[in-house]
Amino acid sequence: QVQVVESGGGLVQPGGSLRLSCVASGDIHSINAMSWYRQAPGKRREFVTFLYSSGMTNTAASVKGRFTISRDNTKNTMYLQMNSLKPEDTAVYYCQMGVGTPLKYYWGQGTQVTVSS
Question: Please, are residues 96 and 35 in contact by the beta-carbon 8 Å criterion?
């Protein structure tokens, strides 16, 4: 069993920054894929960014240049650094961990990010 927990959300003013964290624990042999998604009120969950263990990464156009994904393998943790935040970034942010081969995916419970003055 694998548990995934996000943290770091909160209220921030437009133009501000936040860093989200996502920690995986449990029966982990290897974390081969890490992703962030978000879901705004009344909208579908959407892809934000991913990072594979190979180093391959991709980021949605709406956040490219402002959001950066990274990982700390020693802590089974990934991060989402969010800069120049906009009101339209307001959403619940979810992390997804892909563990093992073949990949098995696990979701966190989500953390709320609100961008407002």
Answer: yes
Cα 66 to Cα 46: distance, rounded to the nearest angstrom: 17
Does residue 58 register a pLDDT over 90? yes
pLDDT of amino acid 73 = 86
* Cα atoms in the 13 Å half-sphere on the side-chain side of 44: 2
Q: Which residue's structure tokens are 């959403």?
A: 91
Which tokens sit at 99?
A: 């563990």
Any alpha helices (H) in the chain, and if so which ranges?
Answer: none
Helix or strand or coil: residue 74?
Answer: helix
Q: What does the block give as tokens for 50?
A: 């991913």
User: Which residue is listed with tokens 């936040």?
Assistant: 18
Annotate 24-43 with DSSP letters as a single string.
EEES-S-EEEEEEEEE-TTS
